[in-house]
Amino acid sequence: MKKIGIIGAGISGLYIANLFKKNPKYQVSIFDKKNSLNLNEGYGVQLSTNSVKFLNEIGFNKLEKNEKFNPEKINFYSKKDQDKICELDISRFNLNDCKYTTLKRSTLINFLKKDLEDLIKTNFSVSRIEQEQEKIKLIFENKEFHECDYLIISDGVFSKSRNLVSNKKIQPKYNDTLAIRGMIPAKNIIDKKNILLFLGSNFHHVIYPVSPSGDLNLIAIMKYKLSVEEQKNYSLFSDKSFIQKILDNIPQENKEFFSNLKELKIFPVFVSDNFFEAKNKNIYFIGDAFFAFPPSFAQGASQSIEGAHELFSSIENNSNTYFFKNRVNKTKMVNNRSKLNQFAFHLSNPLIAYFRNIFLKKIVRNKKFLESYLGKIYR
Ligand SMILES: Cc1cc2nc3c(=O)[nH]c(=O)nc-3n(C[C@H](O)[C@H](O)[C@H](O)COP(=O)(O)OP(=O)(O)OC[C@H]3O[C@@H](n4cnc5c(N)ncnc54)[C@H](O)[C@@H]3O)c2cc1C
Known about the structure:
By secondary structure, the chain is α/β, with parallel strands linked by helices. It has a single domain (2-171, 272-378), classed as FAD/NAD(P)-binding domain, CATH 3.50.50.60. Helices cover 31% and strands 28% of the residues. It is built from 10 helices and 18 strands. It has helices at residues 11-21, 49-56, 105-113, 160-165, 228-232, 240-248, 300-316, 321-345, 350-363, 367-378; strands spanning 2-7, 26-32, 44-47, 68-69, 73-78, 84-89, 101-104, 120-122, 126-132, 135-140, 145-148, 150-153, 173-184, 195-200, 203-209, 216-223, 262-271, 283-285. A 7-stranded mixed beta sheet has the order 6-5-14-15-16-13-17, covered by helices on one side. Strands 8-2-1-12-18 form a 5-stranded parallel beta sheet, covered by helices on one side. The longest helix is centred in the C-terminal third of the chain and has 25 residues, at 321-345. It is globular. The structure holds flavin-adenine dinucleotide. Flavin-adenine dinucleotide is lined by residues 7-13, 31-34, 38, 45-46, 125-126, 154-156, 160, 179, 219, 269, 287-289, 295, 298-302, 304.
């Protein structure tokens, strides 16, 4: 029996643990530094069909219907909801029980961990990783240790484990954007079934359904410079005067949605700027520890699941050498689209934004373009 050690119980670590758990050839242990898994009750996540397909392999299609939503369109607006630019039919990529899905993050995490309760060890923060021949030894800050044959590192964008197995320090970089998150009451929204995307100057926000109560998830991305000290100062993001300063910075025409926001949270967005391949045998990275994208293509979680599925298959088929190369190729495609989306969504010159809107109206109806820009990622 092969022992699988997984560091980090986020979306990617939990998903791959489910795949290994189904197979009696493997014994799985998952370690997380937190004392309980972060459920962030209200906040949402979008999952495109590429990840829903893989989630269905572990029973996602059986999740209660009222816990997940299947928006059919992305409605693009400039500024207010009276100014609709166009709509993109995302349901064209759906298959029978494999549909573009939005839901609460807590629903997804609860689903992923429900069969793993006895395998997850919380309060386990890794402090050393040693490898001797075929065995990998994990030493934790609580002085416990664990041996495994394969180590899967899924401890997120700030991955400490990545630095433990590499000689150089690898740090994500600040994306020059802040994320503003919250829940918005249904009564304020004209279309409660679809994804609404509002484009502003150096700012965009997205609203989509996540909750049976009807409340919707709002996530905004604001261009914002932070000094190196500010980036490291986490207390800043719960400081009332800083939060007020950020809210005051929201472009006037986008402000109407932000007065009724519940569970407001502001945090800096960090992204990867390079790939790191462990030279050690049988040590792999998935999820944000492998690569973290700008959030403007909503692909981080979906790619985490897709990458985890690829790694599982390559370990199963003993073809591990291709995993890194294949993942880098797909990651580059997604990263380029994420950066391009952010650039296009944030245009500040009104004339250029006017031409962008004309262009958007055309491309959302162009089948060839949609197949190439979205189909290559979603299928
Ligand atoms: C604003 C924003 C909006 C987004 N929206 C979407 C979206 O709509 N759709 C989408 O697909 N993606 C989205 N993403 C991206 C997505 O959230 C991430 O890509 C995804 O959650 C990454 O999952 P993960 O499992 O790799 O890492 P994480 O979810 O970060 O999990 C890492 C886990 O590792 C643990 N850990 C950390 N350090 C250690 C350690 N030293 N020892 C042990 N455990 C440790 C942590 O406690 C955590 O549980 C968004 C991202 C942002 C910033």
